[in-house]
Amino acid sequence: MAAALPGDLQPTPPCPAEEVPAVDSEGRLEYLLIAGAAVLWGTVGLFLRWVDIPGQEHFVVFIRSTISAAMLAAVISTGKKREQLRPGRHARLLLASGALLTLHWVLFLKALNNLPIGDAEFITYLAPVLVAFLAPWVLREKLEGTTVVALLMALGGMGLISLTGKEEGAGIFGMGTLYALSAAVTYAALLFTLKYLRKDTPTLTVAFYQTAVNTVLLLPFCAFRSFNVSPRGWLSLAVLGTVHTALAGLVYVYAVKRVKAQHVGIIAYLEPVSAAAFGFLFLGERLGWQDLAGGLLIVVAGAMVLHHAWEVSAGDRPASQEVLRAGSE
Q1: In angstroms, rounded to a whole number, what is the distance separating the alpha carbons of residues 243 and 252?
Q2: Secondary structure in 3-state letters for the chain
Q3: Among the listed ranges 119-123, 137-141, 175-179, 193-197, which one has the minimum average pLDDT value?
Q4: What is the C-alpha separation between 265 and 289, in angstroms, rounded?
Q5: CA of residue 279 relative to chain centroid, distance
Q6: What are the tens digits of pLDDT across the range 5-61?
Q7: Directed axis angle between helix 91-114 and helix 57-78, to 10°?
Q8: Whole-structure pTM over 0.70, yes or no?
Q9: Cα 28 to Cα 191: distance, rounded to the nearest angstrom
Q10: What is the Cα–Cα distance from 45 to 42, expressed in whole angstroms?
């Protein structure tokens, strides 16, 4: 029987193009789910260290995606939701979302290999700026004053954190910058694609096709090749595939429907902050004053967005109590 996510509500008709669903009391959970996924993804670096195959990150992505696609296919098949294996009327867009996810991961890894880590992360995390300022045209979301202030704070915090990135990349700086900018653009495009798909495409369908397409695209680069992975590395890969990709990815795709795109981008800044914190706790990595000050700015920015969502929802009607199984919305 498929697992259930609390708050998966009876589907409602899509809103008119010029309107964005208000964040009601039901939507508070989705904001917390996005934040939780971002914090969880901050632990990816830990597991990558334990996999310990530097230079072969595409294999890590391939295994993550393969495990996730297999898990989601099993959930769909055993949970009597087999109709959700059909892509429906957005087949091309589903394939595009999977390709965008693959491209984003590859570009970001290449940026890390060609730039100082701090620079690569700072440039890539310009994506929320693109999302916030393009959302009024792409999604017809009104750009909120709270978003602008929180975005400037988060961007400033990310800039401070990037100052501690001393590790030099092994490649060409100009190409690394191009990779990072391209990673930012693909992130924004992926988020807009998800927002469009989630108007009427079930969570499980979107999450499955994203990882399945990822697996197919990376198969030629990983098939019939030997990768020296230790037992601890395989265990880490299993966790990355089940928890970070299948579970967290499912939660993210589910929640993104009810969270404004401009808010998703700002909350995403919690990922590099949590990554720095986990690196300090588990890997003994040093935190400078820039990390602490930048992290504080980002956390405050995220809190501003959550508080704003809470205020907006305060006067809305009570949440519906009717719940469906995960992925049905």
Answers
A1: 12
A2: CCCCCCCCECCCCCCCCCCCCCCCCCCHHHHHHHHHHHHHHCCHHHHHHHHCCCCCHHHHHHHHHHHHHHHHHHHHHHCCCHHHHCCHHHHHHHHHHHHHHHHHHHHHHHHHHHCCHHHHHHHHCCHHHHHHHHHHHHCCCCCCHHHHHHHHHHHHHHHHHHCCCCCCCCCCHHHHHHHHHHHHHHHHHHHHHHHHHCCCCCHHHHHHHHHHHHHHHHHHHHCCCCCCCCHHHHHHHHHHHHHHHHHHHHHHHHHHHHCCHHHHHHHCCHHHHHHHHHHHHHHCCCCCHHHHHHHHHHHHHHHHHHHHHHHHHHCCCCCCCCECCCCCC
A3: 119-123
A4: 25
A5: 19
A6: 444 434 444 444 334 444 555 568 899 999 999 999 988 888 888 998 887 888 999
A7: 150
A8: yes
A9: 19
A10: 7
Tell me the one-letter amino acid at 94: L
pLDDT of residue 13: 44
Side-chain-side CA neighbours of residue 323 (13 Å): 9
What's the pLDDT band for 115 if we cut at 50, 70, 90?
Answer: confident
Domain residue ranges in the chain:
32-311
The residue among 204, 212, 197, 203 whose CA lies nearest residue 68 is 212
Structural contact between residues 121 and 272, judged by C-beta atoms closer than 8 angstroms: yes
Q: Specify whether the CB–CB gap between 194 and 253 falls below 8 A.
A: yes
Distances (CA, A) of 132 to 7, 33, 199: 26, 20, 19
Integer Cα distance of 122 and 316 in angstroms: 37
Structure tokens at 211: 């990882």
Q: Among 263, 36, 293, which residue's Cα sits nearest to residue 158?
A: 293
User: Do residues 226 and 115 lie in contact, with contact meaning Cβ atoms separated by under 8 Å?
Assistant: no
What integer pLDDT is reported at residue 26 of this predicted model?
Answer: 52
Arithmetic mean of pLDDT, 217-222: 94
